[in-house]
Amino acid sequence: MIQSLIPWIGVCAAVLTSLSYIPQVRKAWPRGSTKDLSLHMLLVLTAGLLLWVGYGLLKTDWVIIAANSVGAALSGSVLAFKIRDIRSGR
After folding, report:
1. What is the structure's pLDDT at 43?
2. Cα separation of 76 and 51, whole Å?
3. How far apart are CA 85 and CA 18, in angstroms?
4. C-alpha neighbours within 13 Å on the C-beta side of residue 63
5. Do 75 and 49 meet the contact criterion of CB atoms below 8 Å apart?
6. What mean pLDDT is predicted for residues 67-89?
7. Which of 29, 62, 65, 70 has its CA 20 to 30 A from that of 50?
8. 41 to each of 5, 68, 80, 86, how far by Cα in Å?
9. How far apart are CA 6 and CA 11, in angstroms?
10. In 1-90, where does DSSP find H-type helix?
11. How far apart are CA 85 and CA 82, in angstroms?
């Protein structure tokens, strides 16, 4: 019984952690509100998520691949907005 729940726990964790970036993307996109975000943190986070995608590919684990792909895309979006804001002097 417990063994059959393990993949679902992973899926739920993946969905929640991946979607956690959406509020920040929604804040940063239209308003350019990235002043309080660390550029270095966003660089390290996005790189780490991309490494997780690579790890998932090597392990052929679709939950790791999907969750971290979504997270990397959203984190990468916030990173792009942060770079945009730095370049525009915001």
Report:
1. 95
2. 13
3. 24
4. 12
5. yes
6. 91
7. 29
8. 33, 16, 13, 15
9. 9
10. 2-19, 22-31, 39-59, 62-88
11. 5
Q: What is the pLDDT of residue 36?
A: 82
Long-range pairs of 36-39 with CB within 8 A, sequence gap ≥ 24: 37/78, 37/82, 39/79, 39/82, 39/83, 39/86
Query: CB neighbours of 23 closer than 8 A, spacing ≥ 6?
Result: none
- Taking the CA atoms of residue 44, residue 81, residue 20 and residue 17 in that order, the dihedral angle to the nearest 10 degrees is -30
Give pLDDT tens digits for 20-68: 888 888 888 776 678 888 999 999 999 999 999 999 999 999 889 998 9
| pLDDT at residue 26, as a whole number | 82
Tokens of 10: 């992973």
Q: Which of 2-11, 46-55, 66-75, 78-87 has the lowest mean pLDDT?
A: 2-11
